[in-house]
Amino acid sequence: ISSPRILHKTDARAVITNINDKKTPGDAREELSGKIKKMKLGSDRNTTIQIQKQIPAGIELIVGMKRDPSFGPVYLFGAGGILAELIGDKNLTLEPMSERAIRDLIESSKVSRLLTGYRGEAPKNIPALRRLIGSLSALAAIPEIEEVTLNPVIVTEDNAWAVDARILITR
Predict the structure, then answer these.
(1) Which residues make beta-bridge pairs with 166?
(2) How far is CA 89 from CA 76, 83, 92, 107, 156, in A?
(3) With contact defined as beta carbons under 8 Å apart, do 110 and 142 qualify?
(4) How far apart are CA 3 and CA 82, in angstroms?
(5) What's the Rg (C-alpha) of the chain?
(6) Please, what is the average pLDDT of the chain?
(7) pLDDT tens digits, 48-90
(8) How far is CA 20 from the centre of its chain?
């Protein structure tokens, strides 16, 4: 369920993953429609059911940008998903978003060792992750965008995907 009134979709049980032969997309839509009614979100024209590709398991990260009145864009990187608030892995940097700044941002995080292949796990696609983080500076160039939060970003051996996004725009 995509709704501005749901901040943590997992906590609200507003996400269904691993749809396969046992649960069809139609079953999932029916279940989510029932939750929208139960949560009284049906009158909100910004509430929708969102369908997206099932992303393979990987490292869940948070990536973001928030415009500060004094410093300009401030970028965030760290552990994401349910770990974002639990372990508080918040690493910040300012403009300019150079390759070196992005590399330092990733390497300063608690999850950086997981990305390089920890305890026999295969290394994750760090170049794809760096490109994703770097793309935030293009969004920061749009003055109406106040804040962007991508959580989770899932990084696997093959790619990096922004699975959920929240963007705040000034009017």
Answers:
(1) 149
(2) 10, 8, 10, 12, 19
(3) no
(4) 19
(5) 17
(6) 87
(7) 787 888 888 899 999 999 999 999 999 999 999 878 778 888 9
(8) 24
Chain position carrying tokens 């760090």 = 126
Nearest by Cα to 135 from 31, 64, 30, 58: 64
Joined tokens for residue 4: 């501005």
SS3 state at 161:
strand
Is the peptide bond preceding residue 152 cis, with omega within 30 degrees of 0?
yes
If we measure between CA atoms, which residue out of 2, 169, 7, 159 comes closest to residue 82?
Answer: 7
Amino acid, single-letter form, for residue 58: G
Q: Which tokens go with 33? A: 């429609």
Distance CA 110, CA 167 (A): 25
How many Å apart are CA 38 and CA 57, to the nearest integer?
30
Shortest CA distance to 132 belongs to which of 162, 106, 158? Answer: 162
Structure tokens at 65: 């940008």
Token code pair at residue 99:
């390759």
